[in-house]
Amino acid sequence: MPQHRPAEPDIRRYYTEVFAEADRLHRTPQGRLEARRTRDLLARALPAPPAVVLDVGGGTGAYAGWLAGAGHRVHLVDLVPAHAAAARTAYPEVTATVGDARELPLPDGSADATLLLGPLYHLPDRADRVTALREAVRVTRPGGPVVAAVISRNAALIDLTAQGRVDERSRPLLLGAYATGVNDPETGFTTAYFHRPEQLVEEFAAAGLPAPRLYGVEGPLWPLLNALDSGPDDRLFHDAVACAAAFEQDPAVLGASAHLLAVAPA
Ligand SMILES: C[S@@+](CC[C@H](N)C(=O)[O-])C[C@H]1O[C@@H](n2cnc3c(N)ncnc32)[C@H](O)[C@@H]1O
Q: Is residue 97 left, alpha or beta, with left meaning phi > 0 and alpha meaning psi from -120 to 50?
């Protein structure tokens, strides 16, 4: 049985005591853009329903519930007990258990598709991220898609700058995270890792996966959404979605998204 360092305790504390995950994807236009684009990309990446979909780091079930509603059989695994419980309550058709992406409590080949939309950016050590990807490969039937999301290297600096929240205290922390990829929890988020696109490709290869298809999730317009009033017809939101779709696989624009999504067959 492999031994891992326990997940950083600040991750459980952050999601239990500090941050409300349940409405993260509805609360702000930026969250709604992430949700809309992630759903568009998942709809293309996943097999047609009904498939067995494993949602690792599924949080409170935003995607699990949507996928179950589309006819998939969804099992969610999350590190935070309150998240697994909230997912079960909100989406009774989803099964949910507490677990660590690095040691999934599931048999080999038991899922038709596996999502890792959270754990990779909460594991600051590369070896842990590769282990999580290997576990996703192990539990997915050969050929089924492994879909992983990461936070883009420059997203925190762009986000806080667009919100006018960079000051003398936070600037060095944000520049440090930009330089090394490792976020200091003093920024207000958790221990986290922010990827460059080529690092995600390299980590897929280290886990034995083929070169993934890489997508920018939000596209380059996301920082404007929280800063500007989109107007009654939400025109900016729709334009941001269209812009993200237009550039989604352009290597020159990938890193401008807040999140990157990688898809490869197990
Ligand atoms: C920002 S939330 C994302 C939730 C959802 N997947 C989404 O994309 O909206 C990140 C989730 O990853 C979970 N997580 C972090 N590290 C994990 C690990 N090592 N194993 C399993 N879940 C983990 C957290 O508890 C949290 O629920």
A: beta
Closest-CA residue, ligand 1 atom 27, reads 59
- The pLDDT tens digits of the residues spanning 136-179 come to 999 999 999 999 999 999 999 999 999 899 999 999 999 999 99
Report the atom number in ligand 1 closest to the C-alpha of 101: 20
Domains of the chain by start residue, with CATH: 9-154+194-265 (3.40.50.150)
Residues 6+ apart with CB under 8 A from 37: 217, 218, 219, 241, 244, 245
For 221, how many CA atoms within 13 A lie in the half-sphere containing its CB? 20
Three-class secondary structure of residue 33 per DSSP: helix
> What's the pTM value of the predicted model, to 2 decimals?
0.96
- Name the amino acid, one letter, at 236: L
- Give residue 208 CA to ligand 1 midpoint distance, Å: 23
- Rounded to a whole number of angstroms, the distance between the first and last alpha carbons of the chain is 22
Q: What's the rounded Cα separation, in Å, for the pair 225 and 137? A: 36
